[in-house]
Every structure is written in C-alpha cells, then in structure tokens.
C-alpha cells in the first residue's frame, strides 16, 4: 500500500505535500486507461484513510 503523500514524494520529488487532488486525478486518469470497469477496479484500489493498493 502507498499513501498519497508517498506517491506525491516519489513522483514529483517534493517532500512538502499540500492537500490537493493531484494524486487522485492522476490515479483516476490511469484507471480510465487500464481498468475495464472504473467502479470495480482490479489494478489500482483505493484503501480509504491510507492511500492506494496496486494489484490484488
């Protein structure tokens, strides 16, 4: 599992994380491209209160 903060740090290389929708928007765009059904994702799952989980 990866927190939104960790994803932001690894991708953009910035340690200061401001609460915004940057990661969420990019995750949504990735899901649009790779998921068969965005309502029931298989590859990128949201773990509420934690971040994201990749794969099963």
TrEMBL record:
Keywords: DNA-binding. PROSITE patterns: OMPR_PHOB. InterPro entries: OmpR/PhoB-type_DNA-bd (IPR001867), Sig_transdc_resp-reg_C-effctor (IPR016032), WH-like_DNA-bd_sf (IPR036388). The keyword DNA-binding applies. It comes from the Bacteria. It holds the Pfam family Trans_reg_C. Transmembrane segments: none annotated. The keyword DNA-binding applies. Residues 1-56 bind DNA. Residues 1-56 form the OmpR/PhoB-type domain. SMART domains: Trans_reg_C. Gene3D superfamilies: Winged helix-like DNA-binding domain superfamily/Winged helix DNA-binding domain. This is OmpR/PhoB-type domain-containing protein. It comes from Clostridium gelidum. The lineage of its organism: Bacteria, Bacillati, Bacillota, Clostridia, Eubacteriales.
């Amino acid at each position: 599992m990866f927190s939104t903060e960790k994803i932001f740090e690894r991708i953009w290389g910035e340690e200061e994380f401001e609460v915004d929708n940057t990661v969420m928007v990019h995750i949504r765009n990735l899901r649009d491209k790779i998921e068969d059904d965005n309502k029931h994702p298989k590859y990128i799952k949201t773990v509420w209160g934690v971040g994201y989980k990749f794969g099963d």
